[in-house]
Amino acid sequence: MSFGPHLFLALLEGTVTAFVLALTALGLSLVFGVMRIVNVAHGEFFMLGAVLAWVCASLVGSPLGGFLFALIAAPLAVGAIALAADRLVLRRVDYHPESTIVATIGLLYILQQAVLTLYGPDARPVPAPVSFTLQFPWFGYSGYKLVVAAISAALLAATWWLLANTRLGLYMRAAQQDLEMAQAFGVPARRVYAIVFALGAMLAAAAGVLVVPIQQAHYLMGLDPLLLSFIVVILGGLGSVRGTLVAAFVVGISDGVVSVFFSPTLAKIIATLLVAAVLVFRPGGLFGEERA
Amino acid sequence: MSKERTGEGFSRRRTLGTLGSLAGTALLPGAPAFAQAPKGKPIRIGFQVHRTGIGATYGRWYERTTTAAVKLMNEKGGIAGRPVEIVAEDDGTDPKRGPEVVEKLCKQHKVDFVYGTLFSHVVIASAPRAGELKIPYFVVSEGYHVASGKLNRYVFQPGITDVRAQVTAMSSWILDKLGKKVTMIYPDYAFGYDHRDFFGQAVAKRGGTVLEKLAIPPTESSFTKYFARVPADTEVLYHVMVGPGVLTFVKEMGEHFGKKRPQIFGFIDSLEGVDIASPGLEFLDGTYFWEAFPRYADSTTSAHAKSYRKLVGVNDSGASTADPKDVSTFSHMFGCWETLHVIKQAVEKSGYKDPAPGDYKKLVEALESMTDFAEGPGHPQGPKKFNGKLHQCYGHQYVSKVEDRKLKVVHRTKIEDSLYDPEADYTKQPL
């Protein structure tokens, strides 16, 4: 393949990766920004979304119906699990930063092993709601991947709108900037925390639902997105939503280009080196100045 | 995380099964004279199984095949008149866990042999521990690591052929029938490197060229980026993939190449446990696969192969008789069946009694002196040659073409086609 189409394919792959990554990492970033919690179980919410999408697809006969059902039901179910985790675990340790790391590691294993027990160790395919191939002169490309990018973009925009224009978004931003002051002004901190944790999980679950027709649902699939999300969140600046989005695109597109032209392993190496460099030269991340 | 299951539940079930089969044999009026009910201390075979992790699909079918083989053996008088008992332990397809499982089976469960490991990185990690413990370790793995001589005298692969033999047997057919310019796609670990090295060599020897070698991590979930690096003048795309992403791999290959695809030759590993008629795999029609044991039964299927299918619970399309959506790993799992029958032969020939150094020595030497396994109920895939110096068996290989969303055998190699110059001699190692 000559350089032009090769680059085009790299950019296509990179853009799709970037949108999914942004959606996954945004949840992690919100949870850290508002609650100061490093949620190690975040990748498992992604995995739960994918596995629930398989369940929905098996309940509903048509691929499109199953997909739409999953896109609504899976994030709701995962959000409910996250609410329960918040109530039963995180609140009990008083959202203490170190304790919550250990607690969410425990949560990771509980979720992973529960899925292994109930769903089994197999990778199961979920049919794509729409399947068409875009036939370019040089190669074919899965049309569904572009649908994934479009839906991710819509969900990102909706989250942005929620943060910028609603009372809940205001509470969240206030809690992030200065929790004590926010509480003094009557922000219901506990409820905001619970909602943020659930929202973060729901975003990851939605990403899982979107990705599963491309990847297949498997109980170990949460690890990769977790690592990449951490890379994105650290690059962008912990807790900065804008930083997360920018970093997702930097990582996603560079991953696409490096993977296509060189090797996917090299892409991961570069992303990790980038994180190290940012931590050395700009410890707060690229957009870290919002941190209080 | 690997999930542990102790052998207790399994052995209790096994014991019940054994009792059941004892009762069954006693009730059969026409039971042949040699089918004495097994009695005495059971032969305990430790089964290192990939119940979880990336090898889980294979593990499930390895376990079903093993259960069926042991049931049949116990019905037919066991091993040397003793009942056979399987002690299964999950290793999570994890090379770190592998040696621990070997040790646990040997020290804690006090099994007679360890058997059944498939994924080559787990085998390579576990084999040294078996060698240190001096317990015979029977792998069903396909990798060249046994015959290469890099493992040890206690490791045997008598029930499944190795990758080097497979690609040696396939290479001339591929180059003659499909094309000389090859691009290879393989998993990025030991098993994949066997393909890369030995197919690469065979291609060079027969006047072909390997244009590009693409190694893919076995945990990869997205593949489009790799296909972009397949050179445009590729005549044959040679693929072999394993892991949870195999269906995605084949689908994305179809999407990427569309109608302008080169000839495609795959190892069935890329689609083991996957229905050939899955949506998205339409483009596979007209492509070729290597098979060790044809997944689809046809008019040429032997009586032994038919009876093997029935006992394991596999229908004529290679799927479970209980659930047609549950497609088997047909080209690999027969290795479990045949390996267990080789263990039986070796125990009976050597007079092995107890897990003690003297008896192990007799057993290892008896195995090393074997040269042929005849086709029969214990060897339904076909006859095998066994090289006692290499601890490796050799057999027939198949090329199948995808036609009407099914695999149809188009070529069967001779056993001799798969032989290569030996590089090792385990019999020189001390016991």
Overview of the molecule:
The complex is a heterodimer of chains A (292) and B (431). Chain A has 292 residues and is mostly helical. Chain A is 76% helix and 2% strand. In chain A, strands 1-2 form a two-stranded antiparallel ribbon. In chain A, helix 1 (3-35) packs antiparallel against helix 10 (241-261), helix 2 (42-59) packs across helix 8 and helix 9 runs parallel beside helix 11 (264-281). The mean pLDDT of chain A is 90. Chain B is globular and about 65 Å long. The relative contact order of chain B is 0.12. The model of chain B is unreliable at 1-10 and 21-33 (pLDDT under 50). The A-B interface holds A 1, 6, 9-10, 13, 17, 109, 112-113, 116, 120-123, 125, 127, 131, 133, 135, 139-142, 214-216, 218, 220-221, 224, 256, 259-260, 264-265 and B 1, 3, 51-54, 56-57, 59-60, 188, 217, 219-222, 224-229, 232, 244-245, 247-248, 252, 255-258, 278-280.
| Poorly predicted runs of chain B | 1-10, 21-33
- Element order of chain A: H for helix, E for strand: HHHHEEHHHHHHH
Shape of chain B: globular
The amount of beta strand of chain A, in percent, is: under 5%
> Could you list the spans of chain A in which at least 5 consecutive residues all have pLDDT below 50?
none
Number of domains of chain A: 1
Characterize the largest beta sheet of chain B: strand count, sense, and whether it forms a barrel.
Answer: 7 strands, mixed
